[in-house]
Each structure stands twice: as C-alpha cells, then as structure tokens.
Amino acid sequence: MKAENLYHTGIVVDDLEATMQWLAEVAGYTWTDVVSVDQQAVTPDGEVTIPMKMVYSGAEPRLELLQTVPGTVWMPADSGVHHLGYWSDDVESDLATLESNGMAVEVKPYNPDGSGTLLWAYAKGRTGPRIELVSRGMQPFIAYWWESAAANGD
Question: Where are the coiled-coil regions (predicted)?
C-alpha cells in the first residue's frame, strides 16, 4: 500500500441525504448519483448480504458517504472517519500484508463473476480508522460514477 494510492475518506452517517445537503451548503460539495446495492460479502461470522447506500463527492479530495447499516461495520466511527480507501493492484496480497501487521479483516466481497478475486476489503487495527482496499479493476466503474457529479452540477 502506498500513500499516493489514497483516493477517498469514507464517513458513515445516519442520514445520507441530510449530510449531503449540509456539506453542499457549508462547503459547496456536489455529489455523484446515490447508489443502493445489496452487497454479498464474507465476514468473520460468515456470508452476509449488506444493504448499502453510498455516494461520492464530485470534487477531490473525495469524500465517500455511506448510510449507517445497524449490526455491521457500517456504523459511525468515534473519530468521524470510518475508513481510508486505497486503490490496490492485488487486494488479496495487500490484505495479507495488513493482517501480518496486526489488522483484522472485517468484510470482503468476491467478484460475482466467479473468478474468486476480491472487489474490495475492510481491515481494522487496534487504533486508527479502517483501511479499505479497492481493486484497481473497479476504477473505471468508480470513475464513471464520479462523472455523474458533473451532471449533478459540479
């Protein structure tokens, strides 16, 4: 993992739309389209389906806002920062490096194409925010999503 691969800061919020509006008013943020998806993932307790709702800021440095999902890792963090998201060329290998440095895997969804590759993963250590590793293979999809911010006024 390299510092230059950091591309967003994730913040979990109880009211996604109100937070988007507030950040638009106080800081001039514009937002991508809101995406809602039932994400299949693996946790230490087994396979789960997580109803996710999220949005990215149109401007860099990017913010990712995620709706609270009770009973999951998607709960507001005490620090306000839920995770730092890094691009990864090999999520499995980078995740192993995080684990060897004392971080625990919280959730990791596999690509639904049956390839067995990870799309992204969260790991949490004893201190600091979570680390999210996102496959660079998702970069074109996420870049396309970011373009929706321009259509929304950015």
Answer: none
